[in-house]
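Sample A.
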Amino acid sequence: MRIGEMVRRTGVSERLLRYYEEQGLLAPDRLPSGYRVYREEDVATVRRVRTLLTAGLTTETIARVLPCLREQDRRLVPICPDLVMELRAERERITRAIHELQASRGLLDAVIEAGPTMDSGTASPGTAMA
């Protein structure tokens, strides 16, 4: 199928499909004219990529783990022995990032709470009191 059909089937833009190809996530065939031709299994590959991106993996990590995943009962299942260990490391990286974001939010909350409230009769920055 050509790129327009791939866009329609996956909901992913042409630009993203080209990016996935640059990252080694897709490898469409090329016609002599240079047009990309996608296979039916590429639709499933794009869906896997989207799922893994949503899970917080980088495209670099996805390129490494994608060959070791298969779909079974609508779930991604690892088939390479070392993949589970790598995915656990990725989960730990995401967990650390979540903790860092929560700490940042806590600091921001403290700054907000220390400021004047809108109902205390003080004007917010940039507004004049009546």
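Sample B.
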Amino acid sequence: MKDIIELSVSIKAPAAWIWKALTDSTELENWWSDDVVLQAKVGGAFKEPWENDEGEKQLASGKVTAVKNEKLISFTWKEKNWPKNANTQCSFIIEDKGSVRTLTVKHEGWDTLPEALRSSTMKDFKVGWNYHLKELKSYLDD
């Protein structure tokens, strides 16, 4: 299994709308979840508070590493319960394909997680990203 999750979705909305949905906190809660922060500037914060199946509060956090307005935002991603040296990178890539835009989420760096944690975590993230991309598509296209 490659240590990269890469999923894409086609969206009819203009790139500017997709960008706003990815980087505006009031938009993020419409398709991702409440209190998600993704600041569209290098060094900006990423935060996603969430609860696991046992109802325990969790926190994903990181820093924005690259921004190309309406095209790309990349950021580091670390869960609070991961080992210290575990750190993944996530990118949202918007490509204009004429009448539609393709939004790709690319989440890599899974090899920094211990073997025992890696495949189940990647499986969970793949499910999560599939869900969030569907939510984003239906939010923007409907």
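B remarks: The chain has a mean pLDDT of 95. The longest strand covers residues 57-68.
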